[in-house]
Amino acid sequence: MTLDLLKKGNSATIIAITAEKELRNRFNSFGVVKGATVHSEQHTMAKKTMEIRINKTRIALRLSEAQRVEIST
Amino acid sequence: MKNIKIALVGQPNVGKSFLINAVGETKLRVGNFSGVTVDKKTIYFTRDGYNFEVTDLPGSYSITDYTIEERVTKNFLKDGNYDLIINVVDSTNIERNLYLTMELLSLNKKIVIALNMQDEAVKEGVKIDANLLSKILGVRCVATSALEKTGIQALINEIIETYNQPTQDFHLQFSDIYEEQISNILVFLKEKNYQNNGGLEAVAIKLLREDKEIYRQFRDEPIWTELQPLLNKSYQKLYTHYDTKDLDAIFHDEKNALAKGAVKESVTFDTAKEKQLTDKIDSILTNKFVGLPIFLFLIWGLFQLTFTWGSIPMDWIDAFFGLLIDETKSILGDTQLASVIADGAIAGVGAVVLFLPNIIILFTGIALLEATGYMARAAFLLDGFFHKFGLHGKSFVPLVSGFGCSVPAYMSARTLKNDRDRLLTLYIIGFMSCGAKLPIYVLIIGAFVPEQYAGNVLFGIYILGALLGMIAAKLLKLTVFKGEDEPFVMEMPKYRLPTIRLLFQAVSGKAISYLKKAGTYILAASILIWFASNYPKYPEIEDQYANKIEQTHGNEEQIASLENELVLYNLENSYLGKIGHASEPLFRPLGFDWRMAVALETGLAAKEIVVATMGILYGLGDQQDESSEGLVDKIKSNIELPSAISFIIFVMVYFPCLAASMVFRREAGSWKHWGYLFIFTTGSAWMLSFISFNIAKAIFT
After folding, report:
1. CATH H-level, domain A3-72: superfamily
2. How many other CB atoms are found less than 10 A from the CB of residue B68?
3. What's the rounded Cα separation, in Å, for the pair B9 and B72?
4. 3-state DSSP percent of chain A in helix, strand and coil, to 5
5. Which residue from B61, B95, B393 is facing A29, i.e. has the nearest CB?
């Protein structure tokens, strides 16, 4: 499944990043990388944006971007 | 004395500048949020018998070309003149920070690592064995805290020691398959006696990453024909092993694995302490239901303070400049020189300085929201809404600042990385009615709206402006600024309480640049407008009126009315009056007479001048402000309601003042954009006014 579907309060492991270079670099900078454990913290009311946490880094991203991250729970 | 040249590198928000201030006892400006420093800064100091030259590079997550900051950092590391790198690391977030460290280590330069933010790490139960980490990474690591000034001397000792030693041997130990490829290339390069001052391992890694620069170097050398097949073989092995053909991704995987390994060995986390304060605050502030209301309340509160607190010192400033004008006139007498200094320069500059309190309050608030880390949350909450109109979540910081003054708003648009997003934001900042437009609205509303509704109408004008801005953004996005959106992915920094000094530095910097930039432009514009409204002179007419006044035998009412007549005559026949009459046909379809046209034109210099101009032109002399009963009545009897509505709409949308448009030009990067902005804002102002004038005419007459 993809990261955008991860429910608030749940954790998963990232198994693949399917984004193109620019977005993947961005992910890389923040530690959104293969093998990392990701926690879903919050979705906005409009269901457009979500907040995740990896280790100590909190990251805001759009759901359309989260779709490019494959996870397994 | 020896000179040590240092490149200061680290991820955003790890306290690089803060740390170097502690080391060098310098006063480098510290920003507690990423994206404000877009260029490198160099500082000099002497300590322990060495001259230090430290280049503070903008925060970078990695050495890539993605953002302006990262480009600056990458280029400096590649071509800059430096002896060693200080890599500043946020100890509380060590693993992600080490990703950058690994990239730096693969450059094979002299490096010292500062494990900064020790104080916070201790509180959060993160314990780093600096000695062990030094051994793993092969470079010296020193625990520091810029806030508590600990570890500073140790850091300096390590810098001096590292500087005096030869560059350490390459120390990174990648996975077996990756090491195998590196050593294959190394063996070949050594056999060929290839010389490179950067170290052969660094060259090998660059080749494995398909670095364009190194390819360019190799292509011109005979060695290339033999190297190429070797590389191809290595690539094939990596492709099969990693199941991807993206060599950069492979390197990042390797680098991340190294960071992870290093953390596992040398860092312990006390999980009991892990629940951070940030978690608790965030569960409220970014909450699905109350997050947005809280945000709206905070912004509303900020505006309230800006206007209520701001009005107190504004009265003092107003009185001060009034006194200054009177004093100047009484010292210099009734001369042209006195007039140009008092009525031109001082009055014009005074009108700008008048808004300084608002600027300071608004920017203290914004600096607080930014430095605590709340702005990132607000961008998170608003991105969904903004995205609908083609704007980025981060656009809202400059847009909110636009309600205070467009000058700093244009400057704060720098937080947007993508040129298209930034330009789009720059173009619509003007729709957020700035503080200087307030007197105009107050004047017109006062003339036409019953007092009990005035406040709501004023609020409505601001909201309408913002909504028009959103619609304009959508239109521009669909037509001019088409294309892929910048990824939103954004770090939410930890909540921190900013120090008073940090706040003071941020706000005073903004205030000084407001005074300096706006002050110089306004000064020039004020003198120009003074000249245009006072020349040419008509001595014969003045003599005629002097005679007439003499004939009144001291009847004050008659004298006043004659003097007003003379002022009006001079004004209508001044350069400004001539311009007004010439441009009147352009504005007639909007319901404006020549006086309103001139007021709008002088407003191009500064919006504050609009009300003063109207005061002069409607025949009451030039000592008018918005609270004057007389002016309000004159406006009411001279302007029809549809024209007034049309006028407000025009003011809301048209071209920003001279100072702001100059800053816009600088931030947008070319005169071309300045021209586009003029056409875009004036065009839409004209059309919107035309529509509203005709609708209003149909309704009210």
Report:
1. Ferrous iron transport protein A (FeoA) (2.30.30.90)
2. 15
3. 11
4. 20, 40, 35
5. B61
**pLDDT surpasses 80 at B314:** no
Looking at residue B323, its amino acid is L
Report pLDDT digits (tens) over B217-270: 888 888 888 888 899 999 999 998 888 888 888 888 888 888 888 999 899 888
Q: How far apart are CA B35 and CA B258, in angstroms?
A: 28
**B653-680 CB burial, b ≥16 within 10 A, e <16:** bbbbbbbbbbbbbebbeeeebbeebeeb
Give B 420-459 residues with CB within 8 A of chain A: none
- How far apart, in whole angstroms, are the C-alpha atoms of residue B651 and residue B521? 20
**C-alpha span between B593 and B633 (Å, rounded):** 17
Residues of B with CB below 8 A from A48's CB?
A: 383-384, 387
For chain A, the domains span 3-72
What mean pLDDT do residues A5-24 have? 89
* Cα–Cα distance for residue pair B412/B363, rounded to 1 Å: 11
Contact B288 A43 (CB under 8 A): yes
Contact present, B205 and B108 (Cβ < 8 Å): no
B84, B111 Cβ separation under 8 angstroms: yes
Position B619 pLDDT exceeds 60: no
Cα separation of B162 and B86, whole Å? 11
Residue bearing tokens 């040590």: B4
Note the pLDDT tens digit of each residue in B83-116.
999 999 999 889 889 989 998 988 888 999 999 9
CA pair distance B337, A27, nearest whole angstrom = 64
Give start and end residues of each alpha helix (H) in B267-373.
277-285, 291-332, 336-339, 347-353, 356-372
Dihedral over alpha carbons B620, B621, B625, B629 (to 10 degrees):
-30
Indicate the length of chain B as a whole number: 701
> Quick one: closest CA in A to B274, which residue?
A56
pLDDT digits (tens, 9 = 90+) for B326-364: 888 889 887 888 888 887 788 777 766 776 787 788 778
What is the DSSP secondary-structure string of A8-37? TT-EEEEEEE---HHHHHHHHHTT--TT-E
Is A42's CB within 8 Å of B287's CB?
yes
> Measured between alpha carbons, how far is B174 from B453 in angstroms, rounded to an integer?
72
Residues 334-393 of chain B with CB under 8 A from chain A are 376, 379-381, 383-385, 387, 393
Using a CB-CB distance cutoff of 8 angstroms, which residues of chain B are in contact with residue A11?
A: none
What 3 state SS string does B559-627 have? HHHHHHHHHHHHHHCCHHHHHHHHHHHHHHHHCCCHHHHHHHHHCCCCCHHHHHHHHHHHHHCCCCCCC
DSSP B514: I
What ipTM did this prediction achieve?
0.86
pLDDT in tens, B532-554: 878 888 888 888 888 888 888 77
User: How far apart, in whole angstroms, are the C-alpha atoms of residue A24 and residue B488?
Assistant: 12
